[in-house]
Amino acid sequence: MGAIDRYFGFDEHDTDLETEAIAGVTTFLAMSYIIVVNPIILSEAITIDGYGQGEIQQMIAVATILASVVAIGVMALWANRPFGLAPGMGLNAFFAFTVVLGLGVPWQVALAAVFVEGIVFIALTAVGARRYVIELFPEPVKFAVGAGIGVYLLFLGLQEMQLVVSDPDTLVTMGNVATSAVAALSLAGLALMLVLHARGIRGSIVIGILATAVAGWLLTLLGVTSPGTLTPPGSYEQFSNEGLLNVIASVQYDFTPLVAGFVDGLGMITDDPLVFVLVVFTFFFVDFFDTAGTLIGVSQIGGFLNEEGDLPEIEKPLMADAVGTTIGAMIGTSTVTTFIESSTGVEEGGRTGCTALVVGLLFLLSLLLVPVISAIPQYATYVALVVVGIIMLQGVADIDWQDPAWAIAGGLTITIMPLTASISNGLAAGIMSYPVVKAAMGETDDVSLGQWVLALAFVLYFAVFFAVDAEMFAF
Hints:
Layout: H1 2-8, H2 17-31, H3 34-42, H4 53-79, E1 85-87, H5 91-100, H6 107-126, H7 129-135, H8 139-160, E2 164-167, E3 171-174, H9 181-198, H10 204-221, H11 235-242, H12 244-249, H13 256-266, H14 273-302, H15 315-331, E4 336-338, H16 342-347, H17 353-365, H18 370-373, H19 378-392, H20 404-420, H21 423-440, H22 449-469
Antiparallel strand pairs: 1-4, 2-3
């Protein structure tokens, strides 16, 4: 224990092994849905002769887990930060539905594009270019990112809990707890989690997640709700028909056909180089700023940022996602990125790479228990996002709302994130508005040349984004 303490610096970060372990379990439970969701999304685009969709999903699940373990290992053992990584939501949908199914790019070539993106990230991180760009972010944007992600998490969580639902007139409205079993149970789970958190109970978030999931299964087993209502679709029937041990034993661990597809994709790059470059550029741009926003936002609630709003040695956690993306593409999955769900573990007290190490070990263990992980309903994990989202709103106190440049840039960063379901879009709004407002105030000396260039880069990005096909590239 003394060696672990010294390696991760528990005393320096005012933490201990128990706290780090609970934080790691919390983060894992909050992001473990990716083990199930990522294969479902990618299998829509990936087809392999001789294999059914179910077998392909299991291959992708194994690739998802291994890519996550590699990236988290770098985060834990080199960067010493408590952040979890895995193939990112949004980017996997872009990979499957826009690039492969929409543009008709072979999935093998799409994997090659992710690989090239990862190599570029490794190179830029090694020379400090990514850190330089992130440090160009205006101060109000850096301090607003945490609150913006908080609102985003709140919105995502409330939607998955069915407490916020779509409405044809107002876009969204309040869900009906009386008619929705998911909404009713999620609300009860949220109340439990908030009470435990308010009383300072250690592990309040993980207790809330597990209690909500167990309650959902018990209500299903007792016949109060039908299978698939409070349990993941198909999981109840699968366990009932095949038995838990048989389901676990049936997992397809051989993912070499995905590796072979990646190798084939490298040889197909020259078939349509213009489209390939465009795909690499889009993967690169979105992942760059999503990762930057997540690192800054989660670091803010952990107290990791310095007075300028920068994360010291940020190139180390950035290298983790670059390595994960590169390895992940080689074994058959889309871009690996830092997960905003890491904020749940940080809120539970995770402060060092030991938290990430626990997350990585649990991902590795899930190789043996893929079907069991899939039994955790997604709404149960999203209850935690609501609690953390509320906590992250404290970041608004760091913004000088009396200064027009801070108020406008910070306000746009916070609001655009949830309204467009994109961290990078929120960053773009703040980064583009800051120099313009500063110029209008006659304070151009406060804006560096790099900040003008960064704002212009976003303008050019959106010009290309919409010029190519606004509908096709919506993700």
